[in-house]
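Possible race condition, two jobs.
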Amino acid sequence: MMKKYALFGLVLMLFTVAAAGCGLLSEPAAPSTELEAAPVAVDEASGSGGAAVYVIDPAASQVRFELNEVLRGNPITVVGSTDQVAGEIALDLNDLSTAQLGTIQVNARGLATDNNFRNRAINNEILQTGDYEFITFVPSGIGGLPAGAAVGDTVEFSVNGDLTIRDITQPVTFNVTATVASDSQIEGTASAVVQRADYNLVIPQVPNVANVEEEVELYLDFVANAS
């Protein structure tokens, strides 16, 4: 019996050392600064000089990811989220052809799930937020917008751009549904699906976790107010 307990203790010790070595037990770094939106470059020559600039309100917005895994033999959907997001949108509701979207920034250190062990793995091992604090999306084009919109209208469109996670940048298209809530507020959701392999997002091998999905769903639920 003593040998059994000794063996169990040795295995536990080895796992603890291994987990600490790969960052699973270390507290992740806190955000180093409060995010500020990068000013959208309003193109006067394109006729967008009459556009209003809407700034994403982090207090009313959320970035989240979702993917499926098997935990202790049970299928679950992992959801991680943060309100640490910043960005600007330039819109002339009477002429949406001139709409422009600025760089969207997310502080990856703020992402959290319902499990602290998983949070440490995400921050320290998968996203390596100690070295790569920010996730950025740089838009390159907007497609599918109608000619104009009025208060109460909901429009659907797509935004192409480059998404950078850690030091890897890949082209991504977000599908957006947005509503003109008032003359001074736009709200909606942008979504996309990326592949973990495209960003070399490797899941640490830990007990009780298996079959982590390759596809990761990304969402931005936003409220943007006219500045």
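Job #2 (started ~2 s after job #1):
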Amino acid sequence: MSASGVIVVDKERGPTSHDVVARLRRSLRTRQVGHAGTLDPMATGVLVVAVGEATKLVPWLTADDKGYLASIKLGIETDTLDAEGRETVRSEVPSDLEARVDGALARERARGEQVPPVYSAIRIGGERAHELARRGEAPELGARSVAVRSLDLVALRPPDEIDVALEVSKGYFVRAFARDLAASLGTVGHLTALRRTRSGAFTLADANGELLPLAEAAARALPVSTLTDAGVVAARHGKRVPIGEIATPHAVPSAWLDADGRLVAIGAVDAAEGHGRVLRGFAA
């Protein structure tokens, strides 16, 4: 069996996330490669790539919070809400911009819902929103629940540029943040630079080109439980695992390891029923 694990890539500006995956498929000579969380072509930074059996981890690798450094230009909005789009609106930037920043950032920190950009991969009736938008249609996207864990001003560069650092939940669009922050400041705006500094447990410090082994990657992303030999046998067969066969059981999805530290499954425990359930098994 070919090696399995996670590679953290520091993506450069220009390639799509799919381009990075295609490049790794060629260099690793395997089709079993996927990424955990898209980065737009304009964006740089942490792109978590799963190889081999680690592709089964992707649903959990994408579920975590992410961190970004973002630059926004005020006074101009584009159709894609970033610098690669077509200018659609111009608006004067308030002369008292500095006085408005704290209040605007506070409102964005409190945001619990966000309307995604029309140029996004969200599906509407079986088609991607960006496909509809490029045909000249106007996809209607409803607000989605999001959370801002932290939002800090990095630099205010009068008369019309602002840099921020933010930590946000899954499903949060920084391009939409640029739109909403600009509106809160009394103007329009678009994203000019975006760098992902963290994706879940993985940071830019991990972008060293090395393959992080499967079990280690799972243990970085999830809580860990160790199974007894009997527990391993049950889990390998997709059966319920008695809670007594699971050291340090967790009710949330967890990395179930054997005594030698190999990943057996992702599982979760129902304490009321007294057993654990396999959510995803891994090859021995």
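The domain at 222-281 is CATH 2.30.130.10 (Archaeosine Trna-guanine Transglycosylase; Chain: A, domain 4).
Logs attached separately.
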